[in-house]
Amino acid sequence: MQIEPVAQEAPERAIVREFDLSGRTAVITGAASGIGRETARLLAEAGARTLVSDVNEGGLAETVRLIGKAGRPAITQVADVSRRAEIEALADLALAKTGRLDIWLNVAGIIVHRPLLEAREDEVDRLLAINLKGVYWGCVAAGRAMKETGGSIVNLSSSGGETAVPGLSLYSMSKAAVNMLTRTVAKELGPFGIRANAIAPGWVDTPMGLHSFRDESGAIDPGKRELGLQQRAQASPLGITGTTRDIALAALYLASDASRFMTGQILRPNGGVSMP
């Protein structure tokens, strides 16, 4: 009897399959602009059903429009990540609308630029509520929803969490805490097939990244911006600055099966500016 050879999958098809998110559901917070928006768009292009969330309703509408251009409808929900109940509601909505939750990205965050000795209690409370507690409760909500099926949690950290920058003590502290939280989540939820990783980008040209280019009125100073871009590019061995797509591609890797052996890690797309 002649045995027919087993058909081999084309190598290029295997690569596509490992990054394919078809049939999976992803929740992305902070999706109204910048890295969150680009990540939501890219995950949708990879086949994921996306639930995008932010406090900025107008920005969310634009994100949904961009995702829709690729023929991928998105679920949208305005939510404040500083409120646990609203985060939990995102997980419940994803399960109710799609029957599953596979990927959770904690992207929402703010920055405060203020010298340590000029710290204000209201700014401390607000930043920690969003940058740290928001990520914490996001991991809790995702873990609860993924406990039976496994999944991937991706937290947005920053190179600021590993490098001391004057004036950014509060922001840096929150991101350093996110790094340790990510490792702990990976340890606790790994037995359920849940992976947890963080992305610590270098400087990226986003609305948040423009805080140091503003004049006294709060408007962007074109001269400051151009000089700042040059300085940040020169700090990289590659001579470039990052884009939101660079970070979104890192998120796609961590969300997909291509990173099945990655958990508890801090991925650092930063152009080589920082090499811990």
Features:
single chain, Rossmann fold, 276 residues, 2 domains, 7 strands, 7-stranded parallel sheet, 44% helix, alpha/beta
How does this structure look, described?
- This protein is an alpha/beta fold and 276 residues long.
- The protein folds into 2 domains: 13-204 and 243-267, 3-Layer(aba) Sandwich (Rossmann fold), CATH 3.40.50.720; 205-241, no CATH class.
- Helix content is 44%, strand content 12%.
- Strands 3-2-1-4-5-6-7 form a 7-stranded parallel beta sheet, sandwiched between helices.
- α2 (34-45) runs parallel beside α3 (57-69), α2 crosses α8 (244-255) and α4 runs parallel beside α5 (121-146).
- The longest helix has 26 residues, at 121-146.
- Residues 24-206 form the Ketoreductase domain.
- InterPro entries: KR_dom, NAD(P)-bd_dom_sf, Sc_DH/Rdtase_CS, SDR_fam.
- Keywords: Oxidoreductase.
- Belongs to the short-chain dehydrogenases/reductases (SDR) family.
Give the topology, please.
Blueprint: H1 11-19, E1 25-28, H2 34-45, E2 49-54, H3 57-69, E3 75-78, H4 84-98, E4 103-106, H5 121-146, E5 151-156, H6 169-189, E6 194-199, H7 222-234, H8 244-255, E7 266-267
Parallel strand pairs: 1-2, 1-4, 2-3, 4-5, 5-6, 6-7
Helix pairs in contact: 2-3, 2-8, 4-5, 5-6
Mean pLDDT value = 93
Helix count? 8
- What share of residues are in beta strands? 5-15%
Coarse shape? globular
Written as H for each helix and E for each strand, in order along the chain, the element string is HEHEHEHEHEHEHHE
Compact summary:
With about 280 residues, this protein is α/β, with parallel strands linked by helices. The chain has helices at about 10-20, 35-45, 55-70, 85-100, 120-145, 170-190, 220-235, 245-255, and strands spanning about 25-30, 50-55, 75-80, 105, 150-155, 195-200, 265.
